[in-house]
Amino acid sequence: MSSRDYAKNQIDTLPEAALERVIEFISFQKYSFGLYENDTEYMASVPGMNNKIKEGLNTPLSECVHLSEVWADV
Hints:
With 74 residues, the protein is mainly alpha-helical. 65% of the residues lie in helices and 0% in strands.
Protein backbone atom coordinates (compact mmCIF):
# COMPACT_ATOMS: atom_id res chain seq x y z
CA MET A 1 0.00 0.00 0.00
CA SER A 2 1.38 3.41 -0.96
CA SER A 3 1.73 6.25 1.54
CA ARG A 4 -1.06 8.10 -0.29
CA ASP A 5 -3.43 5.12 -0.01
CA TYR A 6 -2.51 4.66 3.66
CA ALA A 7 -3.24 8.32 4.40
CA LYS A 8 -6.59 8.14 2.60
CA ASN A 9 -7.57 5.03 4.56
CA GLN A 10 -6.59 6.64 7.86
CA ILE A 11 -8.63 9.76 7.09
CA ASP A 12 -11.67 7.53 6.63
CA THR A 13 -11.24 6.23 10.19
CA LEU A 14 -11.10 9.66 11.84
CA PRO A 15 -14.10 11.27 13.49
CA GLU A 16 -15.62 14.17 11.56
CA ALA A 17 -14.40 16.65 14.18
CA ALA A 18 -10.76 15.79 13.43
CA LEU A 19 -11.03 16.38 9.69
CA GLU A 20 -10.86 20.19 9.89
CA ARG A 21 -7.39 19.94 11.46
CA VAL A 22 -6.32 17.48 8.77
CA ILE A 23 -7.54 19.86 6.07
CA GLU A 24 -5.61 22.74 7.68
CA PHE A 25 -2.47 20.60 7.72
CA ILE A 26 -2.91 19.66 4.07
CA SER A 27 -3.37 23.33 3.16
CA PHE A 28 -0.16 24.24 5.01
CA GLN A 29 1.77 21.46 3.27
CA LYS A 30 0.55 22.65 -0.12
CA TYR A 31 1.63 26.19 0.83
CA SER A 32 5.06 24.95 1.98
CA PHE A 33 5.63 23.27 -1.38
CA GLY A 34 4.48 26.34 -3.32
CA LEU A 35 1.41 24.65 -4.74
CA TYR A 36 -0.78 27.74 -4.38
CA GLU A 37 -0.72 30.62 -6.84
CA ASN A 38 -0.55 33.22 -4.04
CA ASP A 39 -1.18 33.86 -0.34
CA THR A 40 -4.83 34.74 -0.98
CA GLU A 41 -5.47 31.31 -2.51
CA TYR A 42 -3.78 29.68 0.49
CA MET A 43 -5.74 31.70 3.05
CA ALA A 44 -9.00 30.91 1.25
CA SER A 45 -8.17 27.19 1.48
CA VAL A 46 -8.07 27.25 5.29
CA PRO A 47 -11.51 26.24 6.62
CA GLY A 48 -13.32 29.21 8.14
CA MET A 49 -10.58 31.71 7.29
CA ASN A 50 -12.72 33.78 4.94
CA ASN A 51 -15.32 34.22 7.66
CA LYS A 52 -12.67 35.19 10.23
CA ILE A 53 -11.22 37.80 7.88
CA LYS A 54 -14.66 39.26 7.16
CA GLU A 55 -15.43 39.28 10.90
CA GLY A 56 -12.19 41.15 11.54
CA LEU A 57 -12.93 43.70 8.84
CA ASN A 58 -16.34 44.36 10.39
CA THR A 59 -14.98 44.81 13.94
CA PRO A 60 -14.74 48.46 15.02
CA LEU A 61 -11.16 49.55 15.77
CA SER A 62 -12.25 50.54 19.29
CA GLU A 63 -12.85 46.83 20.01
CA CYS A 64 -9.48 45.70 18.64
CA VAL A 65 -6.34 44.87 20.59
CA HIS A 66 -3.38 47.13 19.76
CA LEU A 67 -0.64 45.37 17.81
CA SER A 68 1.98 46.13 20.48
CA GLU A 69 -0.08 44.06 22.94
CA VAL A 70 0.10 41.08 20.60
CA TRP A 71 3.75 41.48 19.51
CA ALA A 72 5.75 43.56 21.94
CA ASP A 73 8.60 44.18 19.48
CA VAL A 74 6.40 45.68 16.77
